[in-house]
Amino acid sequence: MARALLGLLLFSVLACGTSADTIVLKNGDRLTGTIETSDGKTITFKTDYAGEIKVQWSAVKETATERQLYVVKSDKTTVNGAVTAEDSNVTVHTSNTGDVTVPLSNVTVIRSPALQQAYEHSLHPGLLEDWNGGANFGFALARGNSDTTNLAFGFNAVRKTLSDQIKMYASSIYSTNGGLTGAMVTANEIQGGIRYDKNVNHILFGYVSGDFAHNALQDLNLQQIYGGGLGAHLINHPNTTLDVLAGANYTRETYSGTPTGGTAIAVQRNLGAATAGEDFEKKFGSTSSLTEHFYFYPDLSETGEYRFSLDAGWVTQIKKWLGWQITVSDRYITNPPIAGTKDNDVVLSTGVNFSFSH
Prior knowledge:
The chain folds into two domains: 20-123, no CATH class; 131-357, Porin (Beta Barrel), CATH 2.40.160. Helices cover 8% and strands 65% of the residues. It has helices spanning 2-18, 113-123, and strands spanning 21-25, 30-38, 42-47, 51-56, 60-64, 69-73, 78-86, 89-93, 99-103, 107-111, 131-142, 148-160, 164-177, 184-199, 204-215, 220-236, 240-257, 265-284, 288-298, 306-317, 322-333, 344-357. It is elongated and about 95 Å long.
């Protein structure tokens, strides 16, 4: 029994040893471990004795694997199998088509089975996956000589894949001022929206969107803006992105109020307008980020009439899930239908930010 166990242990050790990947360098050094990935210029190699290291292909004399690797060629086709490489060629020993030799100059990427599975999953993630975003909350209360209440809330979520993107946002602010004459609402505004982008190529994308707003002090019951068009990724770096877009929108809005010295009125408007906008995001280090979104809506039926929206925010992370944020938003309309209401609403809020990722 003891001999059988010893034999089984020895077989397992030998099996593990033969399944290791090897790299022989031009200086004669020999590395044993696991090839994780390669971009055709360097190899990411994992060893038990030195952890993860990067090896320049120009320093490699030859390499061999017992495991399957996935080799993506410059024509975007993929072959998989055990891999051997010598000088400037990579040979994939496939199970169905035999040996396939690929010049190293035509290799785009080499992936381990685990990374290949993760890549394939990233092409078609579930609708509930790949979400990032956060919620922010601000509250202020004063009693005594002052009698004020201020409440601000915001939410944003982004799901970005290799082929499309979904953005959602919502924000609200409510403020009262008591004083000697009784409570008076000084702010009561709710905004929200959703946008879907579908990439045409690495620069162009098409989009459809819906934005909604309520502003009690402007006598705006509900504003609905449905739009669509084309956009372009002008900057698409890990730390900086800039998108511009243009299209058309249909706006439906209802107002009801009582002008100063007048009688109660209700107004419903249906408008066709153009859309022009931009989205900008910038990360500063690992803890702070700036976002800014501007949209301009010139009325197509009445020359000179237009609306615009501006939203900007700064978030500094205190922990991975907790940060401090400051936001500003501006909504402008050239000709408010209810006399006596302002054409411009600017909101500045600050508070804590709770981040999430799934």
